[in-house]
Amino acid sequence: MPAATRAAARTAAIAQGAALTDPVKRDLFERLLSESRRRRVLGTSFDRASLLARIGAKYDRAALLEHIGAPNALVEPQWQLVTVALRDGTAPTLKIAGGLVEKIPAAQVASVSASRTSAMPEGLLQNLTAPEAADLIAFLAALK
Hints:
This protein is α+β, with helices and mostly antiparallel strands. Helices cover 38% and strands 10% of the residues. The chain contains five helices and three strands. It has a three-stranded antiparallel β-sheet with strand order 2-1-3, with no helix packed on it. It starts with a helix and ends with a helix. About 3% of the residues have low confidence.
């Protein structure tokens, strides 16, 4: 096979792989693209105002963006993580989603402490492009 044909086949294969919707597979191919053809992800720091300007005309979602961008900045009491230490020395951490209630008899509880740390991990937006982040915020805003 001539070198030009091999190069064209390689370029086509990389382009097809970089266009996949599965992020794991897509990212394997994307690093083979030239810098100018790679997705422009937001990274660890980004201009929140410029992202809001893209979606602000359609949605007023500054609070969603702030909570996703800095999840530990404001953790409402109902979303605080609570650690319960039992009198028998065990220290289970109860993480109950969806409003479920776990009752532990008061006589078994040695201490209870709440954390101001969010269960949502930091950095959720850093590997998204600005349009992907805007789509995420728009999707979440539509869940009412």
